[in-house]
Each structure stands twice: as C-alpha cells, then as structure tokens.
Design a protein that fits this description.
Blueprint: E1 2-8, H1 15-28, E2 33-38, H2 43-52, E3 57-59, H3 66-76, E4 82-86, H4 104-111, E5 115-120, H5 127-138, E6 144-150, H6 155-166, E7 172-176, E8 186-187, E9 190-191, H7 201-214, H8 217-223, E10 247-252, E11 257-259, H9 262-270, E12 273-278, E13 292-295, E14 297-298, H10 304-309, H11 311-322, E15 327-330, H12 332-337, E16 340-342, E17 348-350, E18 358-361, E19 367-375, E20 387-394, E21 396-400, E22 405-412, E23 418-425, E24 428-431, E25 434-435, H13 441-458
Parallel strand pairs: 1-4, 1-5, 2-3, 2-4, 5-6, 6-7, 10-12, 10-13, 13-15, 15-24, 16-18
Antiparallel strand pairs: 8-9, 11-14, 16-17, 18-21, 19-20, 19-22, 20-25, 22-23, 23-24
Helix pairs in contact: 1-2, 1-7, 5-6, 9-13
Length: 459
Amino acid sequence: MRGFVVAGTASGVGKTTITAALLAALRARKLSVQPFKCGPDYIDPAHHVAIAGRPSYNLDTWMMPVETNRSIFRTACGDVDVAVVEGVMGLFDGVSGSSDQGSTAEIAKLLGLPVLLAVDASNAARSVAAVVKGFRDFDPQLRLLGVILNGVAGPAHLKLLREAIAEVAVPVFGSFPKLLGATLAERHLGLVTAGERTWNAEQVRALAEAARQNIDLDLLLAKCEIPEESLHAAHATPKLDYHGEPVRIGIAKDQAFSFYYQSSLEALRAAGAELVYVSPLADTTIPTTLDGLYLGGGYPEIFAEELAQNHVFLESLREFVASGRPIYAECGGLMYLAEELTTLDGRRHAMASVLPLAIEMLNRLDGFGYTEVELLDDCLIGERGKRLRGHSFHYSRVTRAGNLARRYRTRQVLTGAENHEGYCAGNVLASYIHLSLAANPEAAAHFVRSCRQAKAVAL
C-alpha cells in the first residue's frame, strides 16, 4: 500500500490542480487510487470523484476523533493501490497558532503518510530553498517526501531552483506547468461545484500528461510506501448497535445542493437509512415513500430564481412538512426553507416558506470556521446537553427569524463568538452549521430514529 499527502506552503499554491493531475496520471497507469481531502471542504472532494472514479473522503482531526479518521482511511483504502490526500491551507495551518491541531501536518503524522509539498516559485529563485528548509525542519516528526514547484518560468528558472534546493537536500519531484485549459472557475465559496462543471475527459488526459512529463512518478511511487501500522487503528472505532425498521431519507442533490460529507451519508446508512436523492431544481415532487429529508448546503443563491419557480416541488415540500415527517437542513438548506432570499442584486426570491426566516446575501463572510454546538433542548439530532462539532462557512445572514425556537448554542473556535441558532419549528431543524455525522454518529442515529418514529405515527 502506498500513499502521500499533497500539501502546500499556503492556500492558492496549486494543491488542487496538482492533486488532480497526480490522480489522473496514476489512474492512467492502471492503478486504483483513493482520494481524500483534509479539512471541512465539500467542493474539492466532488472534483476528485470525477477523476478517481470513487468517493473522496474528508479527514479532519478537529471535527473527528483520531480513531474515526483512521477508520475512514483504513476502510476506504482496503482495495486500492495508492492513497492521495489533498491538504488544506498551508501544511501547518489548523485551529491554533501554537499546535498542529486540525492541520494537514497532524493528519499526515496520524496516518504515517509522507508529504509532497507544493511550493509557489513564481517570484523567487534561491530563496525557495530557505522556504523548503524551513518546512522540512519545522516539525522533525513529519516525513517530507519532497517538493513540486509551481509557477516556474522556464528551464533556466527550474535549473536555478534545483541547484538551490539541492543545498538543503530535499528531493525535487518536478515542476508543474500552468494549464489554462484545465482551470476550474471559482466563486465566493471556492471552486464551482462538480455538479456544474468539473474536468472533462480531454482535460483529465491533459492533466495526466502534464504530470507524466513533469513529475517523476516512478520515484514518487518508490518512496511513498505506507507503514503497515498506519492501516490498523490501535483501538477499533466503536460500532453503535441500531435496531428498528429501515427508513428512507431523501437527500437534496443537484447543482444547488451538493455539500455533503461522504462519511456523513454512510453514517446515516449505518444507522438504518436508505438514501434517496431528490432535486429541488429538477423534480416536481418529493416521493411519498420518504420518511425524512436532509437538505444540505450548496449554492441556492446562484439558482434562487429556478428554485423559486419550481412551484410544484415547493408545494410538495410544504405538504411533506405538514405530514409530520422530519426535515434536517444545513446552511443552503436553511436558506431554501426560508420565506425569502435576497440576492446581491437586491432581488427578493420567494423560497419554501417552511420557516419564518428572511435571508440576505452579503459580499463578505458572515460565519467562518470550526464551531462547537451545544443542544439547548431535545431536537431531531439529539437530546438536551449533547455537544457536537461542525463547521460554518457562509456569505449570508438571517435578517428576520420571527419567534422561532433556537435549539443550538454555538461557539466559534477561532474567535470565541457565541450565538443561538438551530432554528426549530415542529419537525423541522435548520442551521448554518455543517455537522460531520461521522464525528457525531449518535446524531445520525437520532435523526434516523426521529424519521422512524414519524413513520410509525403515519402508519
């Protein structure tokens, strides 16, 4: 078993493109490749899937316990040749300035993975060697495999860089050219989603060829063997014992709603749920056989007009609520359940009117970072006093909330700011917080139980 982490000196140095190129090149060699993403990002993993042909999993040492990360990694790697883990931000960036908690470095050490460091060399030469030396020496427990140089101007520039980095005895696995035809568009939450546009077959071939020509893949594969102990957790992740009638939970999935952790969906399945995908954009109705609904995050603001015009689906959603069946919504799902959404152009779009909320888009982040959640009362995902971990990342805010009950006390880890949300009305719970259900399997089980109870009442 082989594997490595593609990390960066900072955000924006080309980690995603280099990861995509390596996935494509390794698959072109007929190797099976398992992708992962460090941190709470939803968008990059979906693009991994388009190249690797298998689900990409998030690894997160703040949201999830150590053994959960190991279990996810071990299980996903059971039948593959190479694991490729895309890092988040800079290699050592996490939730603290004094430790590596929540960082790519912590995950690399936890799993025994060597690190391939992407370095932006576009505006430097010998100085890059100082940067590389600093990253190599900063944490002696970290295994730095070598570097890939991005932004190299040409052969003469690359020669200077190789000579300089040779002084600090760190291997250079190659440089990566700028591929204009393989660049994905970005917007306020990151890359466009894979549901809208991802790399097509021609672009994947171009990425693979660029990696083949510019990166020493033979050396990379020879140096990235994973120690056997990395594939075996010291303690098995405890398995919850679920009993009860299976339930069918609808998952909103289309261009407007796509932010789901793969491991969260699997946690719902493990708790006894059959998942059925529905599209608020394209479908005309919610299947009557569903026992619950999960509205994840995404870009409802980009598709606000289309969502507002799908009147038949909106009416079906309101009938679903009236039937007593549970709905759990996160971020974009919360926005969709509101009465209205005001976009940046000042236009107001009627949403589902399930909750008496008004939402407006902003041109700046209103909530960002890891968030602790305490349940102030019993609700769809747990009992009073339960503490959960999640992540917030949104460019909108609630401007009107009526007299809605609020079931969450939240605290942002970075700033310490506290808030009360988790808007609740009857069988509906909606929040800006994205929860990892793999980190909180009891929450997944509680939601499935809530759906099962509603099903029993309906029968």
